[in-house]
Specification:
Bound molecules: adenosine-5'-triphosphate, magnesium ion, nickel (II) ion
CATH superfamily of the largest domain in chain C: P-loop containing nucleotide triphosphate hydrolases
Strand content of chain B: 15-25%
Protein name (chain E): Peptide/nickel transport system permease protein
Distance between the termini of chain B: 37 Å
Strand content of chain C: 15-25%
CATH architecture of the domain at 40-61 and 95-257 in chain B: 3-Layer(aba) Sandwich
Order of helices and strands of chain C: EEEHEEHEHHHHHEHEHEEHHH
Number of strands of chain B: 10
CATH class of the domain at 40-61 and 95-257 in chain B: Alpha Beta
Shape of chain B: globular
Structural class of chain C: alpha/beta
Domain ABC transmembrane type-1 (chain E): 85-274
Structural class of chain B: alpha/beta
Number of helices of chain C: 12
CATH class of the largest domain in chain C: Alpha Beta
Organism (chain E): Devosia enhydra
Distance between the termini of chain C: 35 Å
Number of domains of chain C: 2
Helix content of chain B: 25-40%
Helix content of chain C: 25-40%
Strand order of the largest sheet of chain B: 6-7-8-3-9-10
CATH topology of the domain at 40-61 and 95-257 in chain B: Rossmann fold
Strand order of the largest sheet of chain C: 6-7-8-3-9-10
InterPro entries (chain E): BP-dependent_transpt_permease, MetI-like, MetI-like_sf
Family (chain E): Belongs to the binding-protein-dependent transport system permease family.
Shape of chain C: globular
Number of strands of chain C: 10
Oligomer: heteropentamer
CATH topology of the largest domain in chain C: Rossmann fold
Chains: A alpha+beta (478), B alpha/beta (271), C alpha/beta (327), D mainly alpha (315), E mainly alpha (290)
Chain lengths: 478, 271, 327, 315, 290
């Protein structure tokens, strides 16, 4: 048993350092894993079963036409002792509305006004029904912070969550302690340290040596090692989809569609899964989604539009003379997860006859060249990230870039889904947009990684994330 | 001293160097190495220069051979100031004044064959003619045979090397040879070979020789006329044997009295 | 043996692996005696001296016997030897510029020796050092004692070295070319000082040099070395006046001196042809034979020993034809 | 001596200035910018430009340079764009790891190198001496991170004696912090020790061949005494110079070692901030390191003046 | 005065010569083997080192068809080592070569063209030496992007100042020899003297230093690639292999053994070669620094 069990402490391991904790400006997973739900809470929580529980809002009312949302704010205190006011809520929502992070801002696309009704009530008016808005209030877009402490958000975000951040040393650790002002039940473990160990093996070693109590998020590159060392036996292992990410190839949509399709046929999903997913931590898929999303579908040679077929790809290349088209594969040199797929993809595409060159660049250049590049400055790249289809929305081709799938049809389908009044409609429309996406061979999903965590056998109570990818510390107990 | 004008001469030459800076806010001082020196050599004459270490002998040779420009004073070659001379005259000066240096081992490039080394001055000074004939001739003059040409310096003894260095100096058929302590790095048994050679060259080729040494007897043996330099000035000049048997200047006396000989030692009055 | 020897060297061989720099050298310096060891560069003079001091470079080995103060120095340990070095046997080196510790004051360096061997306090040793410096005719000794080596002249440094060597009244002082690095004018002063100081202290002197006049001025006996062997050995007067070995004679003849220079410049110096052989290519028989005017087949095949003539030569120079130096 | 000090100081200032220009230009030449990194993949170009403007990254380079350097002179290292934290604070917390790591590595290196180098110099013709020389050669050939990997494999994973990586804060658990530094320091010290051994060996060999050591022996010192009283004092000079030069290399070593052992030290901070294009943080921290290295070398030079009377008294 | 300068160069004692020859021989053999490995990789590789064969992944050393086994993507380790040798050769030798060329030009200029040139060049070298090379390399990688060329550039920036210093001091000691004075006397211009006399006489130093920096270059490249700012696929380097080995399978895998061992052996070999060459080519320096 961990020596920390008796002291009411635990030490977890994080793999990445966010650098900044300003969740209004940054969308980094490394940040969203720890701050939301633990330190900062959203207005509401969406539970796994689809039900909604109160967060900073203790009650809410949705108008029949789904255009007016009225939130009743809880009589609670922020961890710094200041009471939660309606002004804070309005400030927070407005900040998120103006957030440079498009997923945050996207939730507010339909919002026309955010007003104070009385000291405990806030009213948000929409010009059309929006699923994104409602879901956003349970995600990062709905996180509530005190206006007074906004200046220190990058290093010391304040919120109403069960924990407060005592200290964050970048590249080193987060230190949390129970928030004595928390409105709910005090967490079982008072002090939590999240140690940042970028070297994955070192993290596993530390767990094995008993220096730490859990690795709630184990990146794909360690799955094989973890099995090889038998850690799944000696520790309790959880797999859960929420933290997971789809890994997908992105082809430049300006390329000839048939060339894109031929490229898609070179993607041997099982090979990726064997190589990185250890065959158990990830599923092969052709659908841009995670298994917890209703429109998800695993790989299936029948339903997949462009299943792996290297011979067919070669034939196509030969037939159309694609060998003479120089192609650039942009790979990220300093993110192993994203440079490894290139190790498989590039040689395979070359073997299929494509004239492919690999261009490895670091994240900062990648951000500028790939994310910002208009028109797209690459032909093929691989990404891994949120399984949120709305991120691709783009109506006109001139805005085409890496992160925009500019198809009016697709964007319309998403907008329709957003406006859906019932969950069933919403799901059906989402499925439709997913289908448009996968048929066009621009965003080509490869595998859907699951979230994998290892816990000290005595450390119990893990729940799957409710707010985006956040690992909730409060339910954990010895 | 003699009615014919000198081949090479320096008039009123002064040279000073600056000390390294020692104090932050004081200008670095200078010290005078040569102070209004007059010095000359006639055709066919061997002139000696002796003095204590640091007296300025080497500095004088550097100025005499045009390697260093004096602060003031003139250096005259056949009556013309070498620092005012036109290119043609300068070239002639370069050819006509050659030098033999102290350390035979370091005066030849270890990576260069003797033959190449000997031809270097001819190429550099752009002297026409049959170089091979000249090579054979000069090698004969210094008492070596042509088998030396294909070899490297490390295959020779110090005495041989010094002779090769002399041969190199002789290649352009100079009028003046300046030798700065050419025997002080040599073994006793070998130094006589080099001294005899220099002496023969002056006699047979009508060369002028400026010969520097700190050993009085060596100078006396080799030269017709000698000067004693001390404290940057020439304190006394005259026929060497005269100079050393009847020194007048105190600095000369000092030098002479320092000489040890086997005979004075054997007779017990050396120290 | 009426006079005890300050040092007696028997059949000394000094070498490294197969190479020998000294090949069977024997001589003795009587107490208060003054012997010269002369020879050209590379003849093994310094190696002989280093063997006596037990300071051979790493890898070098000495064989034979070196008797001093009743013991064979070659058999002593480094520790036992070091208690003698600087006390009963001491040495002055060639290059005063580099032979003093650059980071220590010269007075302290002398005092260290006294303190180490005489068992006196540092303060007393220091006083003695100043005293010694006065005896060495050094100007303003108190002040000079505080100087670092680079601040004083070469002659002064060599006097400091002599002071260190003489500090403990050694039985024998070995001087290895003590004046070669010095200016001609300073050389005489230093020699004079060394001469007087060794006599005052009753120390024997082994003077190593390639300079014949220095030997003539300082020594009673002389040994001439060539290629690692002594080729002639005897009283200075005899060896220099009537050299029996052709090499000794050649050396004497090739010295230009005021005496052998004709005033009209017509004189020619005698010179020894050829060069000193390198260690790894020693000629057979008498090592001097390639350069010797009197060499015969016998010289080429067998090595002569020193005989009654005092020279190791099969065909010694006839006494009837004295060297020019003696004329 | 005053001239000597003045010259060294003047050069120091010039060097700092030159290095600052160099570093500034290098970093500003880097592709990508901090705004793009902060805003991530979904940011719009306008958002990035606005953020860059907010950070003042759109001003002309000379203005930015003089702004930065002016602040440096006032002791203000600037602030991180992402967290708005003063660089000084960031650096100070990192230094509590990097300085002990660096210094202990250096001390360990010297503790290995001085005896080993001296011993092998004195016994250069014996097998032991040759063995030490060979070991130091091998040590020089081992990449420091490989040494780190192997050590953590052995002591961390196999034997479980020491943490394989990671960091415990000094104030939260002093011995824990010490324990997390043990393996990094050993890796760094071993490798540094190997290369220093070579230098010490050659310095000692060199000094022991000097005439004045022979003099010391001729006046009655044993080999050991001559080594301790004369040799080491003189060998200290070249060794000090080498150590001064090795500081820069040592810092290079810590970059890698901090990565191998996941220590949140200064070097790792630079690594992360270079990746994030936090130009001010990188510039200021790198300058800090450079000034430190230059300062060490300045001190070595001045120390030279004290240790070596030839410098002290004549210049 | 002393005739020491004319003493024939003392013959080396046999025993030591033997040991030095051994050093040289080992160094030479390792270096040649290494260069041969790099050269052969151009014509023959057991497998394409970049093509993954997932079914064959993580085979141990000695497996049929895979001499040293395979990595996490089933790529042949031995083939990767061979190509890695090529990269190491290119990066190490390239970095050292650029440094050699620039350092020689700068060093010779500093030694020969007067005080101002000397001060400028030497001080610049000092400044560059104070900038930790690893940090420069990191920043450089960010500036111009990581890759083989950047690594070579970083290495040469790193080595040039020390090269300059070494060449300068070697050239200074050649320049004060009498044969230089002699060349000046017969009117050779400075540039000619540098080319004709100084360069051949510092060539020994240059070769020795080149070898040593070659080795140092391989080490530094490994470090940079390990940090992920050096060589990237499809190029392969030993440091990158170590980086991958640690990422993919963890340190307990023998994957980290082979590239690490290769680095150690080659660097050791090159250093031994450098030391051996120094004894042969540059005896004066050998006494001082070996
Ligand atoms: N370039 C220079 N800069 C400064 N000082 C110099 C320079 N060249 C010579 N000196 C100094 O000038 C003085 C005379 O030197 P020079 O070499 O001419 O003497 P020398 O008579 O040849 O002595 P030696 O017998 O030792 O060769 C010496 O004190 C020397 O240190
Ligand atoms: N450390 C050494 N290693 C190898 N050979 C050496 C060493 N020291 C001297 N020798 C050789 O040993 C022989 C004798 O040298 P030694 O120093 O005794 O000569 P010397 O008579 O003192 O000459 P000098 O007049 O030059 O001082 C020489 O051939 C020399 O080359
Ligand atoms: Mg001179
Ligand atoms: Mg000697
Ligand atoms: Ni006249």
């Amino acid at each position: 048993a961990s020596p920390r069990a008796d002291e009411g402490k635990m030490i977890l391991v994080a793999r990445q350092d966010p650098g900044t904790l300003d969740y209004t400006k940054s969308n980094l997973t490394a940040l969203r894993l720890w701050i939301p739900a633990n330190v900062v809470e959203p207005l509401v929580y969406f539970n796994k079963d689809g039900s909604v529980s109160p967060g900073v809002a203790e009650a809410w009312e949705i108008s029949e036409d789904r255009l007016v949302y009225t939130f009743t704010i809880r009589e609670a205190k922020f961890s710094d002792g200041a009471p939660v006011t309606v002004e804070d809520v309005i400030y927070s929502l407005n900040t998120m509305k103006a957030s440079p992070v498009s997923q945050n801002a996207a939730a507010y696309q339909a919002v026309t006004s955010i007003e104070k009704v009385d000291d405990r009530t806030v009213r948000v008016t929409l010009d059309r029904p929006s699923q994104n808005f409602w879901r956003g209030m349970g995600g990062t877009a709905g996180l509530i912070q005190p206006e007074a402490a906004a200046g220190g958000i990058a290093t010391n975000p304040i919120g109403t969550g069960p924990y407060k951040l005592v200290n964050y040393t970048s590249n080193s650790s987060f230190e949390f302690t129970a928030n004595e002002n928390y409105w709910g039940e005090a967490p079982a473990i008072k002090d939590v340290t999240v140690r940042i160990v970028t070297d994955g093996t070192a993290g596993l070693n530390a767990l094995e040596a008993g220096e730490v109590d859990a690795l709630p998020v184990i990146t794909i590159d360690l799955w094989e090692q973890l099995m090889a060392r038998g850690l799944d036996k000696s520790f309790s292992m959880v797999t859960y989809p929420q933290i997971g990410e789809p890994t997908y190839a992105v082809f430049n949509q300006k390329l000839d569609p048939e060339l894109r399709q031929a490229l898609a046929m070179t993607l041997d999903r099982q090979a990726y899964n064997d190589a990185f997913g250890a065959s158990w931590g990830a599923e092969n898929t052709c659908t841009f989604a995670l298994p917890n999303q209703a429109w998800y579908a695993p790989e299936n040679p029948e339903t997949c539009p462009y299943p792996y077929d290297i011979e067919k790809a070669m034939a196509l290349v030969a037939e159309k003379g694609y060998a003479s088209t120089p192609l650039v594969y942009a790979s990220l040199s300093d993110v192993p997860d994203l440079s490894l797929p290139a190790d498989i993809m590039v040689p395979t595409m070359q073997a299929a006859g494509f004239n492919m060159t690999r261009n490895a660049i670091d994240l900062a250049r990648y951000s500028q060249l790939i994310f910002q590049g208009r028109p797209p400055q690459f032909d093929v790249t691989v990404m891994s990230g949120d399984a949120d289809p709305t991120q691709w929305a783009c109506a006109e081709a001139s805005a085409a870039g890496w992160s925009t799938y500019c198809s009016a049809e697709y964007t319309q389908a998403l907008a329709d889904a957003d406006k859906a009044l019932s969950d069933e409609d919403y799901l059906a429309l989402m499925e439709k947009s997913a289908d448009i996406l996968r048929k066009d061979a621009v965003i080509v999903p490869i595998i859907a990684k699951k979230g994998v965590g290892l816990f000290d056998p005595d450390l119990k109570g893990f729940v799957e994330p409710r707010v985006s990818v956040a690992i909730e510390l409060a339910p954990l107990h010895w | 001293m003699s009615p014919v004008p000198p081949v090479l001469a320096m008039e009123q030459v002064t040279q000073a160097y600056s000390h390294p800076r020692t104090a932050l806010f004081r200008a670095p001082g200078t010290f005078t190495v040569l102070d209004c020196i007059d010095f000359h050599v006639h055709a066919g004459e061997a002139v000696g220069l002796v003095g204590e270490s640091g007296a300025g002998k080497t500095t004088l040779t550097r100025i005499l051979t045009g390697m260093e420009k004096p602060q003031s004073g003139r250096v005259l070659f056949e009556g013309a100031d070498i620092w005012q001379a036109g290119p043609a005259e300068r070239a002639r000066f370069r050819r006509s004044v050659q030098m033999v240096l102290q350390n035979p081992r370091s005066s030849l490039d270890p990576r260069m064959k003797i033959g190449t080394a000997l031809l270097e001055p001819m190429r550099s000074l752009r002297i026409d003619g049959n170089h091979l004939d000249r090579l054979t001739e000069v090698l004969g003059q210094v008492g070596l045979d042509t088998s030396a040409l294909e070899r490297f310096p490390h295959e020779f003894s110090g005495g041989q090397l010094q002779r090769i260095a002399i041969a190199r100096a002789l290649m352009p058929n100079p009028r003046v040879l300046v030798a700065d302590e050419p025997v002080s790095a040599l073994d006793v048994s070998i130094q006589a070979q080099v001294l005899n050679l220099l002496k023969d060259l002056v006699r047979d080729l009508g060369l002028s020789l400026v010969f520097i040494a700190h050993d009085l007897s060596v100078v006396a043996y080799t030269t017709h006329r000698a000067s004693v330099i001390a404290g940057g000035r020439i304190v006394e000049t005259g026929p060497p044997v005269e100079l050393f048997t009847r020194p007048k200047a105190p600095q000369t006396q000092n030098l002479v009295s320092a000489v040890l000989t086997v005979n004075s030692g054997l007779s017990g009055n050396a120290l | 043996m009426s006079v005890p020897n300050a040092i007696e060297v028997v059949d000394l061989v000094v070498g490294v692996d197969e190479l020998s720099a000294v090949r069977g050298v024997s001589f003795a310096v009587p107490a208060r005696g003054r012997m010269g060891l002369v020879g050209e560069s590379g003849s093994g003079k310094s190696m002989t001296a280093m063997a006596l001091m037990g300071l051979l470079p790493p890898g070098w080995q000495a064989r034979g016997r070196v008797l001093h103060d009743g013991v064979d120095l070659l058999t002593l340990s480094d520790k036992a030897l070091s208690s003698r070095r600087g006390r009963t046997i001491s040495m002055v080196f060639q290059d005063p510029m580099s032979s003093l510790n650059p980071v220590r004051r010269v007075g302290d360096q002398i005092a260290d020796v006294i303190h180490r061997h005489m068992g006196v306090t540092r303060r007393a040793a220091h006083a003695q050092a100043i005293d010694l410096m006065t005896q060495m005719n050094l100007p303003r000794p108190e002040q000079l004692a505080r100087a670092f080596p680079h601040q004083i002249s070469g002659g002064q440094k060599q006097r400091i070295m002599i002071a260190m060597a003489l500090a403990c009244y050694p039985q024998l002082i070995i001087a290895d070319e003590p004046t070669t690095a010095l200016d001609v004018t300073v050389q005489k002063q230093v020699l004079r000082l060394l001469n007087a100081a060794t006599r005052e202290r009753n120390s024997a002197l082994l003077m190593i040099t390639h300079d014949l006049p220095v030997i003539a001025a300082m020594c009673d006996t002389v040994a001439v070395m060539y290629a690692g062997r002594i080729v002639e050995h005897g009283p200075v007067q005899k060896v220099f006046r009537t050299p029996r070995h052709h090499y000794t004679r050649g050396l004497l003849d090739s010295q230009p001196t005021m005496d052998n220079i004709a005033l009209d410049g017509s004189s020619r110096l005698h010179s020894i042809p050829g060069m000193v052989p390198p260690l790894h290519a020693l000629p057979s028989g008498c090592a001097f034979h390639p350069r010797c005017p009197a060499a015969t087949d016998r010289c080429r095949t067998s090595m002569p020993e020193i005989d009654a003539t005092g020279a190791a030569c099969w065909h010694p120079v006839p006494v009837a034809a004295p060297a020019e130096a003696a004329s | 001596m005053p001239v000597y000090i003045a010259r060294k100081l003047a050069f120091f200032l010039l060097a700092v200035f030159a290095a600052s220009v160099l570093i500034f230009l290098l970093i500003r030449g880097a592709g990508g910018n901090v705004a793009a990194v902060i805003l991530g993949k979904d940011a719009t170009a306008e958002a990035i430009n606005a953020l860059s403007r907010q950070y003042g990254l759109d001003r002309p380079l000379p203005v930015q340079y003089f702004d930065w350097i002016g602040n440096l002179f006032r002791g203000d290292l600037g602030r991180s764009f992402r967290t708005n934290e003063p660089v000084t604070d960031l650096v100070v917390s990192r230094l509590s790891i990097s300085i002990p790591l660096c210094l202990s590595g250096l001390v360990l290196g010297l503790l290995i190198a001085i005896p080993a180098g001296t011993y092998s110099a004195l016994n250069s013709d014996k097998p032991v001496g040759a063995l030490i020389a060979l070991l130091s050669q091998v040590g020089i050939a081992v990449p420091v991170f490989w040494a780190g990997i192997l050590l953590s494999l052995l002591f961390g994973v196999r034997l479980g004696w020491l943490p394989t990586g990671g960091w415990t804060n000094w104030d939260s658990n002093f011995w824990g912090a010490v324990r997390s530094l043990v393996l990094p320091v050993i890796s760094l010290g071993l490798i540094l020790g190997a290369s220093l051994t070579r230098y010490v060996r050659s310095a000692v060999l060199d000094v022991m061949n000097q005439d004045y050591v022979r003099t010391a022996r001729a006046t009655g010192m044993t080999r050991m005494q001559a080594l301790l009283r004369v040799g080491l004092r003189n060998a200290a000079l070249p060794i000090a110079t080498v150590v001064g030069l090795q500081i820069a290399e040592l810092i290079g070593g810590t970059v890698i070692i901090e990565t191998v052992f996941s220590l949140p030290g200064l070097s790792r901070m630079i690594l992360a901030n270079v990746a994030a294009r936090e130009v001010i943080v990188v510039q200021s921290t790198v300058m800090l390191i450079i000034v430190f290295v230059m300062l060490v070398n300045l001190i070595v030079d001045l120390l030279y003046g004290v240790l070596d009377p030839r410098v002290r008294l004549t210049r | 005065m002393s005739a020491a300068a004319t003493t024939p160069v003392p013959a080396r004692p046999k025993k030591r010569r033997g040991r030095r020859n051994l050093t040289l021989t080992i160094g030479l053999v390792v270096t040649i083997a290494f260069i041969a490995m790099a050269a052969v990789s151009f014509f023959y590789l057991p497998h394409n080192p970049n093509v993954p064969r997932i079914p064959d992944r993580l085979l141990p050393a000695g497996s049929p068809r895979y001499l040293l086994g395979t990595d996490a993507l089933g790529r042949d380790i031995f083939s990767q080592l061979m190509v890695g040798a090529r990269t190491s050769l290119m990066v190490g030798a390239g970095g050292a070569l650029i440094a050699l060329v620039i350092g020689t030009i700068a060093g010779l200029s500093a030694a020969a063209f007067g005080r101002i040139a000397d001060e400028t060049i030497s001080r610049s070298a000092d400044i560059m030496l104070s900038i930790p090379g690893m940090v420069t390399a990191l920043v450089l990688a960010a500036t111009i992007g990581s890759g083989t060329l950047t690594t070579i550039l970083a290495l040469s920036a790193f080595f040039t100042p020390s090269f300059t210093r070494v060449i300068r001091s070697a050239a200074l000691s050649v320049l004060q020899e009498d044969f230089i004075t002699a060349a000046r006397l017969y009117a050779r211009p400075t540039w000619f003297i540098l080319l004709r006399h100084v360069l051949p006489n510092v060539a020994g130093v240059m070769i020795v230093q080149f070898t040593l920096y070659f080795a140092a270059g391989i080490l530094t490249e490994a470090g940079l690639s390990y940090l992920g700012v050096g060589v990237t696929r499809p190029s392969i380097s030993w440091g990158m292999m170590l980086n991958e080995a640690q990422q993919q399978v963890g340190i307990s895998s023998p994957l980290a053994m082979w590239p690490g061992l290769s680095i150690v052996i080659v660097v050791l070999g090159l250093n031994l070669l450098g030391d051996g060459l120094r004894d042969v080519l540059d005896p004066k320096l050998a006494r001082r620094t070996s």
